[in-house]
Amino acid sequence: MAGVRGLALAAHRFDRAEKISELVDATAALAHELLGAQSIAVSRIEQDTCRTLSVYPPLAEDVAIGSGTGPTRVTVRSADRPALRVLIREHSSWVAHAPDGSGADWGDPVECEALRASGHVTGLASPIIVNGHVWGQILATRDVGQPLFEADDVAAAEVVAALTAGALARVDLDEQVRHLVADDPLTGLGNRRVADHAAEIALMSDLEMCVVMCDVDGLKRVNDEFGHDAGDDLLRAVADVLRRAQDQLPGTTTARLGGDEFCLVTIGLSRDEVKRTLARTIRKYPLANGAALSWGVASTADGRPEHARTLFRRADAAQYQAKRRRARAVHAEASSASAAAVTVDKLVAAGVGAILNAQSGLVPRLCALAAAATGAMGGAAWSVLRDAEDGGVVAVARGGMPSDDPGQVRTLAVASEPWVVEVETTAPEEGSAPFADALLLLLDLAVQGAS
User: Fold this and answer.
1) pLDDT digits (tens, 9 = 90+) for 354-383
2) Which one, of 213, 229, 220, 91, lies nearest residue 161 by Cα?
3) Which of 142, 178, 278, 381 has the greatest CB tally within 10 Å of its CB?
């Protein structure tokens, strides 16, 4: 394919392209033929980052970066490549040469070094400009034994880039229309129509299919307390978490069904694998402002229904059960914290009352405190001790009866030199700091009030 006829055939092929992936592959093949290049890379440039989309000849899976076989699927930043910065800013092509012992380098030093590192002797890049903005670039290279790129090659590359740009404008518009129809505008995920279609297609296969229904716990509270912008941020964060899970589950479709409802449709993956991946990802990326995800899974492993909606209903029921379990767990945790607070309040009230009503003298005050504290914390036995001259402690007074079930109680001790008070408690060791702090304050109060 060469000359005007070749360009006409390429333009016709570009017109038939329906996806950007098809178009960039066609661009790479045309540029390779027209430029007589050893290799071609077509890249997308976004936010000053250049990411390879297509290479020609196609790369084998085992080709390593810098092996000298051609451009690889790499990503580079314009901050590291001055020639790329100029291409983006000035919409201009560049050429660089790094001859293998047959002449001096020519062009940007960074590009010359990159050519040498990858085994090439000459390189050329031309911008793909769509609607006045640099959409991407075509990068061509030649190896030892091939002529260096010249002005005619630059002109040919820019013709290919212009043909590509025209086709991209059309394909990109088509994709935007499909995006408006099929995607949720807030999160960028698919919508219910996309999820339903994916489920129906998956159900027609013989592979195991799963539907995961997800619900955001706490969205209304976040909206009420922090505003609807925070609520929108929360929904976008949920979408990001689910995308991360999707990336680990090949063939998965993720969608927002509306409001706080999301779903994943998987194919060819076991329910256990889906559950493990989702649970791991949700743990790794917790949501802000105390929000959380409740989710449930339904699988064709439990029976293949006639309609995909049946699986959605099963998954929704599983998600509802998960939400109820979460609500019970949160309630139990809150009740436990409330009970602990009441116990600390009870300890302080009982301790202060015992100290004030005790007989005069320090030891009676300490004994009254120890007995009251033990009762307030569910224990029975108590001790008042004093530091001894040999470095140990001696018992000054003991009271109560040891528990019939030692496994249900433990000893909490606090000290205010030279005095030590030990009391039994049924409070768990985890979270016991508030009890110890309160008891120590009471001990200090008893000692100071007796002096």
Assistant:
1) 888 888 888 899 999 999 988 888 787 889
2) 91
3) 278
Which span out of 55-64, 263-272, 339-348 was modeled with the highest average pLDDT? 263-272
Q: Which domains does the chain have, with CATH numbers?
A: 3-181 (3.30.450.40), 192-331 (3.30.70.270), 358-450 (3.30.450.40)
Q: Output the six-digit token pair for 416.
A: 């205010």
Residue 62: the pLDDT is 36
Lowest-confidence pick of 77-81, 259-263, 266-270: 77-81
* Whether pTM exceeds 0.70: no
Residue 15 is which amino acid? D
- If you search the block for the tokens 């990858």, which residue do you land on? 118
Q: How many residues does the chain have?
A: 451
- Whether the bond between 57 and the residue before it is cis, its omega within 30 degrees of 0, is yes
Q: Report how far residue 231's alpha carbon sits from residue 260's, in angstroms, rounded to the nearest whole number.
A: 10
What is the distance between the alpha carbons of residues 120 and 108, in angstroms, rounded to a whole number?
15
Which pair of structure tokens corresponds to residue 349?
Answer: 């009230």
Distance CA 244, CA 266 (A): 14
180-to-17, 158, 173, 233, 420 alpha-carbon distances in Å: 20, 32, 11, 20, 73
pLDDT for the residue numbered 92:
96
Question: What burial letters (b/e) apply to 31-64, b meaning 16+ CB within 10 Å?
Answer: bbbbbebbbbbbbbbeeeebebbbbbeebeeeee
What residue has token string 């949160």?
330
What per-residue confidence (pLDDT) applies to 9?
66
